Amino acid sequence: MALHHATRYPDAQHHDATARNTMKYSLSGAASATGKNKTTIQRAIKSGKLSASKGANGSYEIDPSELHRIFPAVATHSVAQPTASNDAQHAPNTRTNSDLARVLELEKELAVAHERANGLEAQNDQMADTISDLRKRLDSSDSRITALLAGSRSKRSSWWPWRRS
User: Fold this and answer.
1) What pLDDT sits at residue 140?
2) Is residue 35 scored above 80 in pLDDT?
3) What is the rounded average pLDDT of the residues 101-118?
4) For residues 15 and 52, is the Cβ–Cβ distance under 8 A?
5) Which residue of 35, 37, 62, 157 could cross-link 25, Cys pair, CB 3.0 to 4.6 Å?
6) SS3 of residue 71 by DSSP
């Protein structure tokens, strides 16, 4: 049907293409929509994390759903939504993105807490081994000191070489 429609009305195909392109972000538009730097968005495109196409003028055209799959949207305070129906449509996405960002943040905090707990457990084990070793050394030195003191009392001699007997 679309092919038939396009052959009947030649401008319809051009209109469909331009309508699709107006919904895509440019590199700077994507950066401002996510609060990221343009270089960050460009690196994500070059590394393959984010897919984008190049337009006729050589600039990137980034699909909003693809962009927000990687980078959550930033709420803008300067632009007011014209209708309540648009607010109703965008509110779940914004909440979902903020919830997802919060979940990711909490997962990172949890991973850091697990690493810290593992480090503290290892440190605790090392301290327990050190305490055990020191107790063994103390016990052996106590017995040596006791033996030395017992032996020195039985053999009392002078410190002076000429007074030794």
Assistant:
1) 86
2) yes
3) 90
4) no
5) 62
6) coil
> What does the alpha-carbon distance between residue 50 and residue 63 come to, in Å, rounded to a whole number?
10
Q: From the CA atom positions of the chain, what is the Rg in Å?
A: 38
Q: How far is the C-alpha of 46 from the C-alpha of 43, rounded, in Å?
A: 5
CB 31 within 8 A of CB 38: yes
**Does the pLDDT value for residue 153 go beyond 90?**
no
Kind and range of the H or E element at 53? strand 53-54
DSSP 62: B
Closest CA to 30 of 68, 87, 78: 68
Does residue 40 contact residue 70 with C-beta atoms inside 8 Å?
A: no
Residues 6+ apart with CB under 8 A from 2: 16
Q: Are 62 and 50 in contact (CB under 8 A)?
A: yes
- Compute the distance between CA of residue 164 and CA of residue 156 in angstroms, rounded to an integer: 9
- Quote the tokens at residue 122: 């290892």
Q: What is the structure's pLDDT at 76? A: 58
Who wins on pLDDT, 24 or 84? 24
Residue 20 CA to residue 4 CA, distance in Å, equals: 19
